[in-house]
Amino acid sequence: MSLEQAAAAAKENAVPIVDTHQHLWDLTKFNLPWLKSAGKLNRSFLMEDYNAATKGLNVVMSVYMEVDVEPSQRVKEAEYVIALCESRKTPMRAAVISGEPSAPGFKDYIKQFKDNPYIKGVRRVLHGGLPPGHCTQPEFIRDIRLLGEMGMSYDICIRPAELGDAIKLVDACPDTRFILDHCGNANVQWSDASPWKRDITALAQRKNLICKVSGIIASAQPGAWTPADLEPYIKHVIAEFGWDRVIFGGDWPVCTLTATYQQWVDALKHIVRDATPLQQRKLFHDNAVRFYGLR
Questions:
Q1: 8 domain-assigned
Q2: What is the pLDDT at residue 88?
Q3: What is the pLDDT of residues 153-173, one digit of tens each?
Q4: What are the tens digits of pLDDT across the range 105-130?
Q5: Which single residue of 41, 102, 203, 244 has CA 20 to 30 Å from 172?
Q6: Least confident window among 5-19, 142-156, 229-243, 268-282
Q7: How many structural domains is the chain composed of?
Q8: Residue 83 lies in a domain
Q9: What's CA 44's distance to the chain center, in Å?
Q10: What CATH number has the domain bearing residue 32?
Q11: 4 lies in some domain
Q12: From the CB of residue 195, how many other CB atoms can be counted at a distance below 10 Å?
C-alpha cells in the first residue's frame, strides 16, 4: 500500500467527531463586550472559517456554545443558531444558549425555547465577573432546577478554585443534567494540581454530571506545549468519569490562542491512543449523540 493509499484509508476509518463546543461570532450581527480585551479573537469567526479549520477531520455534527453576547441580544443569538440548525447546510445540529439563571426574567426567557428541538441547554460563565458562591444561591438553584424540569442541561464553566461550589450546585439539582466544561478549567502549567484532582474525583461521583474534554489546550504555553503537558489532566478526567461520561469539545476559535483545531484533535487522539476503538468513539462521538439526542 502506498503512502497515499494509507492516508486515504486512515481518513476513511477516522473516528467521526461530534464537536460539543462550537463557537461562532459575527460582529456585524452581535456585540461581544469581552472581545475588546481578547487580542486576536477580536474579529468575526464564521461558519466558513469553522469549516476550513475542521476540514478533513470528520466532524460530522456540532453543538453551538453561547458566546456571551450582550444581554439584549440573547434571543437574537438563539434565533440565529436555530436557523443554522434548521438549514442543514452546516454540521450544527443543536445549541446551548446564553441565559442568566437567578435573574427575574429567566423563567419567561427560557420557556420560549421549551419545545424547540435544537435548544438543548443553557450556559452562564461563572467566572465572568460573578462572585464566588453565586451558583449556590437559592434563586440560581431554583432556575437550574427549572432547566431539569424542561429537559434542558446546564454547562458549568467555573474557576477551578470554586469547583466545590459546582459540587453544591449539582447536589442541589439532582434532576438536572450537567456538563462540566473544559475539564474544570484545569491549568496544565500548575505546579500542584492536587486540589483540582481532588475536586474532579468528587464531582465524578455525581451521576447527573458529565465532563467535556475541551478548552484545556488554552492553558498550555503557546508555541512550547506537547501532548504530554495535557495528558495527566485528560487521563485523570477520563479515569474518574469513565468512558461513558466524557465528550469532546473543540472550543474553536478560543483554542487557536495556543493551537489549531487539528493540533488539538491530534493531541487528544495521541493521548487516548491506547484506548479501544469503542472507547475512542464514545469520547469523540457516541456519548454526545446520546446525551444531546442528536440525529
A1: no
A2: 83
A3: 999 999 999 999 999 999 999
A4: 999 999 999 999 999 999 999 987 89
A5: 244
A6: 5-19
A7: 1
A8: yes
A9: 20
A10: 3.20.20.140
A11: no
A12: 13
Instruction: Tell me the residue range of the domain where 99 lies.
Output: 15-292
**Would you state the pLDDT for residue 89?**
83
Assess contact for 43 and 274: CB atoms under 8 A: no
Residue 9 belongs to some domain of the structure: no
3-state secondary structure the chain: CCHHHHHHHHHHCCCCEEEEEECCECCCCCCCHHHHHCHHHCCCECHHHHHHHCCCCCEEEEEEECCCCCHHHHHHHHHHHHHHHHHCCCCEEEEEEECCCCCCCHHHHHHCCCCCCCEEEEECCCCCCCCCCHHHCHHHHHHHHHHHHCCCEEEECCCHHHHHHHHHHHHHCCCCEEEECHHHHCCCCCCCCHHHHHHHHHHHCCCCEEEEECCHHHHCCCCCCCHHHHHHHHHHHHHHHCHHHEEECCCECHHHHCCCHHHHHHHHHHHCCCCCHHHHHHHHHHHHHHHHCCC
